[in-house]
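Now for a specimen:

…
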Amino acid sequence: MDVVDRMALSDLVGRYAAAVDRRDAATVAGLFTADAEFVQPPALVRRGGSATTVGGDAIASTVLAATAHLDSTHHAVHQQVLDSTDIDAVGQTYCTAHHIYRAKDGALRDNAVAIRYQDRYRKTDGRWQIARRELVVDFADDRAITVP
């Protein structure tokens, strides 16, 4: 895999984080292939729901619905490890996802979740997209915060 592809894949995961934080459904959907799969940990799936969502539009709806109750989110993308195969690429990206919400007493809190995206990427018409994304949660920390 050349440096141009590595930079494009790094940009792809950064664009996903920014689009989720902006609640930009069209951009989120466009970052995935038409047949993409998004796999969530069973603990994050709402009762009666499936751990796997298929298709860019459905993935965008699922992700944004899961964050709709929050005041805001802030995804900080960290290291990314990439490997190429004959037709696509695979990668693991570390991220800290901050979920800002109001507690019952009105105070702001941050549920910070250390996550890893285990991805498979596909290049279509010269553009990299996410073909499969599995969300792995390593740990979470919930704390009071102050927002200026």
User: Anything to note?
Assistant: The mean pLDDT is 93.
